[in-house]
Amino acid sequence: MQTPGEKAYQRIRSDILFGRLAPGQRLKLDGLKDAYGVGLSTLRELLNRLTSERLIVAEGARGFDVAPVSQKNFKEIANLRQLLECHAMEQSFALGDMEWEGRVVSTHHKLSAMEARVMKGDRSAVPLWKRYDWEFHHALLSACGSKVLLETHSAVYDKFQRYLIIAVVFRGDLASIEHRQLLDCALNRDTKGGQAVLTKHIQECVTYTLAKGKLGAMSDVPKVEAPRKKAALA
């Protein structure tokens, strides 16, 4: 069972990743402790934990800000994700067994269903789309044999996905087709083919996001106080 502090940590982290706490936003401790239901000492611990994950920036005596976004940072995160995922994919495709294949197939099935809902304009499906996208990509790598590699990839993946969510980016059929191609490569143990599809999947997502122009507009957002009521974070 999660402690109140762990629940608050998960909520704050989710609110950053989903843009409910905006990039560059100043975080006022009094407002945060009321909104997330924890004391100041616990809250400071949680914010320092998120600072170590680079989702929050500590401004010394001035307090804490949500980590900003930038085109440069997005490209660096994308390149790191590509490097980690391509390496883990090679190991996973070589070591994966029938249970691994089952995980890959089942997670792709859920992702495909959720992509169809998002393509129809169902914004309520976005949180599940993010979850199932993560589950599918994680499943592809899950047989790599390295816990450290998987944990590192998970942290980088979350930062990459944060950009897509705050920029409201979903490539529709293109992403869905690439996911199907990744599934086929996994089942055929086609490592080089899978790495090529993955590289295209990540880099074209970056190109598409930057072409939309929304990221540049969010790179210099004004700093505002964090919401004081839980309802404001729903």
Question: What's the SSE pattern?
Answer: HEHHEEHHHHHHH
Instruction: Tell me the CATH architecture of the largest domain.
Output: Up-down Bundle
Q: What level of helicity do the residues show?
A: 55-70%
Q: Name the strands of the widest sheet in spatial order.
A: 1-3-2
Strand content: under 5%
CATH superfamily of the largest domain: GntR ligand-binding domain-like
Structure description:
The protein is mainly alpha-helical and 234 residues long. It has two domains: 79 residues, Arc Repressor Mutant, subunit A (Orthogonal Bundle); 146 residues, GntR ligand-binding domain-like (Four Helix Bundle (Hemerythrin (Met), subunit A)). The protein is built from ten helices and three strands. A three-stranded antiparallel beta sheet has the order 1-3-2. Helix 4 crosses helix 7 and helix 4 packs antiparallel against helix 9. The radius of gyration is 19 Å and the shape is globular.
